[in-house]
Structure to design on (227 residues):
């Protein structure tokens, strides 16, 4: 019974390239959340998705960042034209319900390094 | 502004000793408070979750307390083990919101 699966675990990109981060939620979960953790800081909310819908993307930078959660397959966080400041750990969490008291389970994260 | 502050930033204790970590929050209206453990290079793992009406919750050697009036929480670790070395993160949710508001964590190092 796999938990939240993220891949790759580590990703190195040169400035200007695209980064694609994938997240497969726990079985039976249809709510996915992406968080970003900058070095020495707490996790910060980026986006909340349900199957085929973006519910809240208020934490996403306005440019270069996008997220999707298709009917089939994992959720994807896409960063275009990466810059050094995008270097961070990106965590995905999933839950069975979207209510505020629901347990959210986190993946191991993808560590993006932009060189 | 909704914020979660933790203290101390880091802590070193000897194996077998107890310790207490602190969390203050300004999130309003309050819904619930969670404590997570995050090992280096891993994702956060939930230890406890408490709603407004709960003032203590235990999970093995971990005991969390909540004072919703003073907006403070603590995490007490009993008889520490080397495997307790990790970051402990206080996370708060506002009522009606699914967003988790994270503190910066307390880095605990347990030495033999």
């Amino acid at each position: 019974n796999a938990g939240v699966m993220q891949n790759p675990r580590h990703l190195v990109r040169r400035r200007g390239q695209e980064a694609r981060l994938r997240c497969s939620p726990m079985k039976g979960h249809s709510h996915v959340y992406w968080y970003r953790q900058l070095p020495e800081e707490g996790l910060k909310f980026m986006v909340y998705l349900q199957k085929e819908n973006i519910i809240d993307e208020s934490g996403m930078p306005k440019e270069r960042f996008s997220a999707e959660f298709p009917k089939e397959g994992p959720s994807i966080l896409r960063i275009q034209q990466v810059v050094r400041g995008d270097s961070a750990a990106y965590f995905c969490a999933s839950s069975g319900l979207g209510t505020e008291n629901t347990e959210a389970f986190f993946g191991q994260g993808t560590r993006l390094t932009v060189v | 502004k909704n914020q979660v502050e933790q203290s101390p930033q880091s802590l070193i204790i000897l194996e077998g000793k107890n310790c207490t970590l602190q969390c203050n929050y300004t999130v309003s209206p309050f819904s619930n408070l969670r404590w997570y453990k995050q090992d280096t290079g891993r994702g956060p793992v939930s230890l406890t979750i408490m709603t407004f009406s709960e003032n203590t919750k235990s999970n093995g050697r971990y005991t969390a307390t909540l004072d919703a009036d003073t907006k403070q929480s603590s995490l007490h670790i009993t008889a520490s083990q080397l495997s307790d070395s990790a970051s402990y993160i206080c996370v708060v949710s506002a009522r009606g919101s699914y967003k988790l508001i994270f503190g910066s964590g307390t880095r605990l190092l347990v030495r033999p």
